Amino acid sequence: MFKTFLKIFVFVFFTLNISCNNEDEVKHSSDIMSKKEFISILIDINKTDALLTKESLFDNKLSHPDSLSYYNQVFKKHGVTREIFYNTLHHYLNDINKFLEIQKIVVDSITLKYNYLDSIERLSLQNNDLWALKRNWAFPDDGVTNSIPFEIKMQNQGTYTLSARIMSYPDDLSKDLKMKINANYSDGTFDQKEVKILLKNAQWLDYTAVIQTNINKKLESVDGEVTSHSESTTYMHVLVQEIMLTYEPFEDAMKQDSTIVDSIQEPPK
Hints:
Blueprint: H1 2-17, H2 23-28, H3 35-52, H4 65-78, H5 82-93, H6 96-123, E1 137-139, E2 149-153, E3 158-168, E4 178-185, E5 190-196, E6 205-212, E7 219-228, E8 238-249, H7 251-258
Antiparallel strand pairs: 1-8, 2-7, 3-6, 3-8, 4-5, 4-7
């Protein structure tokens, strides 16, 4: 993060120096942005830099006109000119302690933003359907004894719910038919939940298997079988529809993520 700030500083310092390189004019200028305004524009410059390129700013693209035009948009947004920004930069560079304090505020704010985006990405899994295979199956058309196995590599602690509509016919010969979901941990152990599928009356029924992961262990994957059955099964006559596998984070995790704020906070005096 500090390296990113230095890249921005070097880029701005040299590019703006092209149009405002008279030190005496800078020293006597009254066009100096407030500390809060200066911090805000530095944050926006950082975001602009991240959008423009992933390459180092110390390459041949330093003076790329498109890059400069994007920075001009940032200046326009804040209602300042490049000269005013340069004057302000020069002003705070005269007091290295003030500049380092500003640098810390900018870096901390950007870190908060990135952490917030990471939390949003984690929370975006909430109630999202993780199922990657086809949702509707018919046996024996899709296999005489198919168990519909699945596995997803996951490390997010929370509640995983496997659900589907299942119809079992009277001539179905599957034995010990059930829905099964497992949470597998890095230490080789696992938790398992099973739901028995008993009725063979050619009627659609909703089945759900729910498992909560162990927060004291490191989760590695979630797997299971939508129509698990005994190896002695010789023939299946079962229809399966609307398979879903959803994830919901634990409530405490959601509360923790909600405390992340997107704001600029100065360090205590």
